[in-house]
């Protein structure tokens, strides 16, 4: 029988970061429709589905038509497959209901460097751009197409997430989004294999500017970072749970399917010292606030 604390935490929870089929380069553990049924059956409120290669808003639209008892939320990642820092594709995604826009992941310069050194997952097309995408110029200022994207994001009340960009890019983006009162999430602060490693001091600085910190539990897996979950707990307590969200970043076929992994994540975090209240901030209150579901 499931622990009552975990059952209470699952009810109306949101997983902000899940990868599903169809996917061109990875075998995923579940497709979007099956995920919506699985998550609704255990009492969750919503999931955000993510693809590194395509916008998922049309897929979310269809899934919600088939299973209107649960909310599947579409997103877009600004990789080269969709034209990179492309205001047109953002406008299209926004008009179709996307609620989350990620900065480049496999197309980011840090990911490109990691692949050259064989220190990153290979999940881009063999026809992907050879040069990485940066969102800043040589003066560390945001490039003009991104400013246009921020105007679209502001109009549609979309969340911006940092993806796999560099630390200077993160700071430039957080400075501009918070100035414009745009919701901003810093992704993967403790996962060098897919993100920019941020010190605790840097996380605190970014939170003070107005950003949320997203911790993905998949970072604790041996092949995705092997992060000691105790370190994750320590950082959450230092930054404070009210400034963080906790997601699975699940979907790989070799990992338990997302709802099972979500339950496992909650159980581990409780066991290692996070309180029910702290977890509620990260899997209910903050994701709902970011996605306008309060």
Keywords, please?
three-stranded parallel beta sheet, 12% strand, six-stranded parallel beta sheet, 41% helix, 11 helices, TIM Barrel, globular, 294 residues, alpha/beta, single chain, 9 strands
Polypeptide structure, described:
Helix 1 (4-10) runs parallel beside helix 11 (276-290) and helix 4 (87-95) runs parallel beside helix 6 (144-156). The chain has a single domain (4-290), classed as Metal-dependent hydrolases (TIM Barrel, Alpha-Beta Barrel), CATH 3.20.20.140. Helices cover 41% and strands 12% of the residues. The radius of gyration is 18 Å and the shape is globular. It is of the alpha/beta class and 294 residues long. The mean pLDDT is 93.
List the helices and strands and how they pair.
Layout (H helix, E strand, L loop, with lengths): L3 H7 L3 E6 L12 H10 L4 E5 L6 H10 L4 E3 L1 E3 L9 H9 L4 E3 L6 H8 L27 H13 L2 E3 L5 H13 L4 E4 L12 H10 L2 E5 L12 H11 L4 E4 L10 H14 L4 H15 L4
Parallel strand pairs: 1-2, 2-3, 4-5, 5-6, 6-7, 7-8, 8-9
Give a short summary of the structure.
With 294 residues, this protein is α/β, with parallel strands linked by helices.
Classified in CATH, the superfamily is Metal-dependent hydrolases
- SSE-based structural type: alpha/beta
Radius of gyration: 18 Å
Helix content: 40-55%
The CATH architecture can be named as: Alpha-Beta Barrel
Poorly predicted parts: none
Distance between the termini: 30 Å
- CATH class assignment: Alpha Beta
Order of helices and strands: HEHEHEEHEHHEHEHEHEHH
How would you describe the shape?
globular
Beta-strand fraction estimate: 5-15%
Overall tally of domains: 1
Give a quick account of the main beta sheet: strands, pairing sense, barrel closure.
Answer: 6 strands, parallel
Strand numbers in spatial order across the main sheet:
4-5-6-7-8-9
Q: Kindly report the CATH topology.
A: TIM Barrel
Mean pLDDT: 93
Give the total of beta strands.
9
Number of helices: 11
